[in-house]
């Protein structure tokens, strides 16, 4: 596999992606809509890592499923090198499967227990290419070696491997079609700390050698700080702050981002932040609060926050959706 272009060109662009689910309201009651994704936009550059962070229920995994078209978006566009691969077109679907792949969170559930590892690795080639059995086996064995597994593992079953080894197999499967983009949905959260570090180092090596671009979804901010180039913070289906890793970790502006970073454990006393404790639970997406969705938990809430929805705007060297930040920086009203 040859490295892809890493000159900074855009490989993936999401434009106002939405994913809404209709929910039955009950007997003689109107139905409701869960806005799991509500207008998410970003641009992923070649050879770089976009990290998506937020609490459980903020829409991170829904975003991963939409980016890989496991679930189609309710609205919006998904552009791979300028082509809208979210459209119902067989040729575009084939292109998307080859160029955008996913690594799931749980390596114990994402591998078919009834198939040998070799069959699991060869299956994408069997479905999407015209390679013969010998060529498929050669590609599979070469990929196993690249992710640090031995040739004798090829004929074994998933239950014979540790969690870290299974996740290496999942990564190998994701790379079998030579994709440019890997969507990693909490790919290391189920692993022990030492194994997690090994898998993260492997992903960095693969990105350097193959020119891969990552959409890396995690709730672990220490992992994000280690791996990311850009960071996108989500809350209740919306992006609240987005910018470079240096900007987000160096000086977070949105109150939610500040609260997340203040909860990150630090060994160095000088790097510790004053703890910001959020009150209450994440609101129900079936009944979000009016105005800003974070207003019910924000320590800087103002009357306008409960009346209007802030829009994502360029402020302080990143994009932020917050009236308090607009007030602090003197940004003209939208």
UniProtKB/TrEMBL annotation:
<dbReference type="InterPro" id="IPR013563">
    <property type="entry name" value="Oligopep_ABC_C"/>
</dbReference>
<feature type="domain" description="ABC transporter">
    <location>
        <begin position="12"/>
        <end position="261"/>
    </location>
</feature>
<keyword id="KW-0472">Membrane</keyword>
<dbReference type="InterPro" id="IPR027417">
    <property type="entry name" value="P-loop_NTPase"/>
</dbReference>
<dbReference type="InterPro" id="IPR003439">
    <property type="entry name" value="ABC_transporter-like_ATP-bd"/>
</dbReference>
<keyword id="KW-0547">Nucleotide-binding</keyword>
<dbReference type="GO" id="GO:0015833">
    <property type="term" value="P:peptide transport"/>
</dbReference>
<keyword id="KW-1003">Cell membrane</keyword>
<dbReference type="GO" id="GO:0055085">
    <property type="term" value="P:transmembrane transport"/>
</dbReference>
<keyword id="KW-0067">ATP-binding</keyword>
<dbReference type="GO" id="GO:0016887">
    <property type="term" value="F:ATP hydrolysis activity"/>
</dbReference>
<dbReference type="Pfam" id="PF00005">
    <property type="entry name" value="ABC_tran"/>
</dbReference>
<protein>
    <submittedName>
        <fullName>Dipeptide transport ATP-binding protein DppF</fullName>
    </submittedName>
</protein>
<keyword id="KW-0813">Transport</keyword>
<dbReference type="Pfam" id="PF08352">
    <property type="entry name" value="oligo_HPY"/>
</dbReference>
<dbReference type="GO" id="GO:0005524">
    <property type="term" value="F:ATP binding"/>
</dbReference>
<dbReference type="InterPro" id="IPR017871">
    <property type="entry name" value="ABC_transporter-like_CS"/>
</dbReference>
<dbReference type="InterPro" id="IPR050319">
    <property type="entry name" value="ABC_transp_ATP-bind"/>
</dbReference>
<dbReference type="InterPro" id="IPR003593">
    <property type="entry name" value="AAA+_ATPase"/>
</dbReference>
């Amino acid at each position: 596999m040859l490295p892809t272009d890493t000159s900074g060109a855009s490989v993936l662009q999401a434009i106002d992606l939405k994913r809404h689910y209709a929910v039955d309201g009950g007997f003689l009651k109107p139905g409701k809509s869960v806005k799991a994704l509500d207008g998410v936009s970003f641009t992923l550059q070649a050879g770089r890592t976009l990290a998506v962070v937020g609490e459980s229920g903020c829409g991170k995994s829904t975003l991963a499923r939409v980016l890989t078209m496991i679930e189609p978006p309710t609205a919006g566009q998904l552009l791979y090198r300028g082509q809208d691969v979210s459209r119902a077109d067989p040729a575009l679907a084939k292109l998307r499967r080859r160029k955008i792949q996913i690594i799931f969170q749980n390596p114990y559930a994402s591998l078919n227990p009834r198939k040998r590892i070799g069959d699991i690795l060869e299956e994408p080639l069997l479905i999407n290419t015209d390679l013969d059995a010998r060529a498929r086996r050669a590609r599979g064995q070469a990929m196993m070696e690249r992710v640090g597994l031995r040739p004798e593992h090829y004929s074994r079953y998933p239950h014979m491997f540790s969690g870290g080894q299974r996740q290496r197999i999942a990564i190998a499967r994701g790379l079998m079609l030579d994709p440019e983009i890997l969507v990693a949905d909490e790919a290391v959260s189920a692993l022990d700390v030492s194994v997690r570090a090994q898998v993260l180092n492997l992903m960095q090596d693969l990105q350097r050698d193959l020119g891969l671009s990552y959409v890396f979804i995690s709730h672990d901010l220490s992992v994000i700080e280690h791996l990311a180039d850009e960071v996108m913070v989500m809350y209740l289906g919306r992006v609240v702050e987005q910018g470079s890793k240096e900007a987000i970790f160096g000086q977070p502006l949105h109150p939610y981002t500040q609260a997340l970073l203040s909860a990150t454990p630090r060994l160095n006393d000088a790097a510790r932040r004053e703890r910001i404790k959020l009150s209450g639970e994440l609101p129900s997406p079936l009944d979000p609060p009016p105005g800003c969705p974070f207003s019910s938990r924000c320590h800087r809430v103002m009357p306008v926050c409960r009346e209007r929805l802030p829009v994502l705007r360029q402020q302080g060297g990143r994009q932020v959706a917050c009236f308090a930040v607009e007030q602090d920086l003197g940004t003209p009203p939208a």
